[in-house]
From TrEMBL:
Residues 302-314 have a biased composition (Basic and acidic residues). Pfam families: DeoRC, HTH_DeoR. SMART domains: DeoRC, HTH_DEOR. Residues 3-58 form the HTH deoR-type domain. The keyword Transcription regulation applies. Residues 258-314 are annotated as: Disordered. This is DeoR/GlpR transcriptional regulator. Gene3D superfamilies: Winged helix-like DNA-binding domain superfamily/Winged helix DNA-binding domain. The keyword Transcription regulation applies. InterPro entries: Carb_Metab_HTH_regulators, DeoR-like_C, DeoR_HTH, NagB/RpiA_transferase-like, Tscrpt_reg_HTH_DeoR_CS, WH-like_DNA-bd_sf, WH_DNA-bd_sf. It comes from the Bacteria. PROSITE patterns: HTH_DEOR_1, HTH_DEOR_2.
Amino acid sequence: MFAAERRQLILEMVRANGAVSLRELARVVQTSEVTVRRDVRALEAEGLLDRRHGGAVLPGGFTRESGFPQKSHLATAEKTAIADLAAGLVEEGEAIVVGAGTTTQELARRLARVPGLTVVTNSLLVAQALAHANRVEVVMTGGTLRGSNYALVGSGAEQSLQGLRVSKAFLSGSGLTAERGLSTSNMLSASVDRALVQAAAEVVVLADHTKLGTDTMFQTVPTDLITRLVTDEPPAHDDRAATELQALADQGVQIAVAGASGSPGGDQVPAGRRAPLPGPRRGHVPGTSALRSAAGLGDPTAAERGRVADLRRR
């Protein structure tokens, strides 16, 4: 395929989906990621698209938000791996909150197998994934439906979360940086996500490597409130994603990498990276490479069990 044909196909993919990873572009045009990166730079120079860490977006991507149909086809393998790893953080009988997003939807599909679970969510997609789960109670927030991502937002959603207390919040977003933390392109979504964070003792962010280093308009979770990041292993050439992981680790965020060499379920950054295993955070004492013991996420404390019981009695 000639360069002009390849770049036209790349441009059409980005226009159709809003954002596409370099890995996916290389697969579709049947060439290397190095070649695709060169094509993306050329298209950016012409003002036809913008580069983002690990991918390409339409111009104006800082404020642009793709809808669910577009997001659902992006980084699908990475989201699956992240969801598999994050599901191991959830214990039988816990009460948790799960925010809106395609990655959290993948997580919800796996949580359907956890008995005695209570899931509070503002996402219709998360609720749908758990609707027929045996022994899983789903609590929906109120609010106004936002059709682009099938989420309930607004004052009704935020007010329904007041006074709520759960063990963990699982959130996704549009971008993640060590400087600002998790962010999104929509003000209403950001406001509800902040309310979800306030309800949880621990915050777990689910973000694939294409979101690392990307900053969008509205901050949802500052870095110092993120307990753990569950992500996938960045490509070997993606130094910026590795640098961002290093910076997040330096600020105490515990990093869990899906598909990391040597320990698929372990707490570590990708093999060959320089980023160290993050140190203690909020009283947690890292243990072995097992996820639950590494972050102190094993058996809930007596106080936590009491909070779960209070939630169910409501």
